[in-house]
Design a protein that fits this description.
Structural class: alpha/beta
Oligomer: single chain
Largest sheet: 6 strands, parallel
Shape: globular
CATH class of the largest domain: Alpha Beta
Number of domains: 2
Number of strands: 12
Helix content: 25-40%
CATH superfamily of the largest domain: P-loop containing nucleotide triphosphate hydrolases
Length: 356
Amino acid sequence: MPTHRRYAVLTEGFIADRHAKTAFGVMRYGRDKVVAVIDSTAAGSHVDDLHPHVRCSAPIVSSVADALSFQPTSLLIGVANAGGFLPPAFRARVLDAIDARLEIVSGLHEFLADDPEFSGRAKLSGAQFWDVRRPPEPIPIFSGAAYRVPQVVVLAVGSDCAIGKMSVMLELERAGRAAGARPEFVATGQTGIMIAGSGIAVDRVISDFVTGAAEQLVTNVATDTDITLVEGQGALHHPAYGPVTLGLMYGSAPDLLVLCHRAGQQSIEDFDVPIPALRDLARDHEQLLARVKPARCVAIALNTSDLNEQDALEAIAAAELDTGLPADDVVRNGADKLWNAISRAAEETAKRQRAS
């Protein structure tokens, strides 16, 4: 597989859809270059014409053949759709990429390397697959080792899915490094793994082993790390994805929590489940962990992308008034404010750990 990937990102029909969050995450934060996006619905434009916040100027083209002129090494499946299955419109384009000997990189639940048609064509062309969600083996049962790590562990939790938990932790890692600290982002989902180059997609792990997977991630950080920033998944009150959130909460054994929320959102998307007030939501997470491994919520990360500047400022101020915690939109305004809050809380936590 290529040491440094040059991605052609496939979003066919999804370039304007939130389900293209894998594409957007890799474009904004990835270490590998995105050289083209394949989406006939927006061909002829550039990514930053449609999504300036992504900070990617790659051209949008109609086909794999058009993308080849930009010398990609890999085709990235750029969507994270419900159920994690390959959209039908993608299939012919994946076959074209296999025939062109591109590596196929996918974060779907459906493993493309196991598809008989894809694997058969790949044997002829020599194309390789990276199914990012395929769990490593073996994953141990949770042991309690996470309680004894020397680092301060910070977990992102949220009011819903797809609200920016990964982005928050990546922005915090960036701010921490700029401040001279040694944070490490720990990837727990497919897009985070593509960005960090390592991790475990915990939503693909057998339920009994999710806590063990999360524990393995926090016990395996670099030895010089001082603050471990664990990417969150799902949402505690989400009827479909709450279990993966609970597994991460127990398995990563966090010391501190960052609560993420899309400003103005009142209920879980696609479900008639109201989102509690932020102060109550923070308390729900703290109370759940209190009898297992206590952790306190120390910051509120708001996603204000749907708001204008003034409304965003008012939403941030309201969140602080509601919770008594520092709040900000780290993508919009930078993460220094929340990093400073986390750094202070981490220092207090480290002192208590040394004293005990």
